[in-house]
Amino acid sequence: MKRIIALWRTVAGQDLRLLWFAIRHENRPGWLLPALAVLALFAVEPLNFAVPLLGTIDEFVLLPLILHGIATMLPAHVVDGYARVADKRLRRRA
Length: 94
Description:
The protein is mostly helical.
């Protein structure tokens, strides 16, 4: 269970920030919003409530892996823009 929580913390935390930046980016890919909408529907699908064990596996294992897959498919200019913004934030905090 600790490994699953660590997976959520590292993968989902970083990838969610990157995807949030990518959604607001002016040159985001056209497939990004539909992919995230499908992922959101997958996260709240009725099967999660009907079969709790499968729902738990979905939420804690599959969702972070799919989020990471979407984040790795982002174009380089979006990822570079996120890296610049994150670097500026780190410099301000230090």
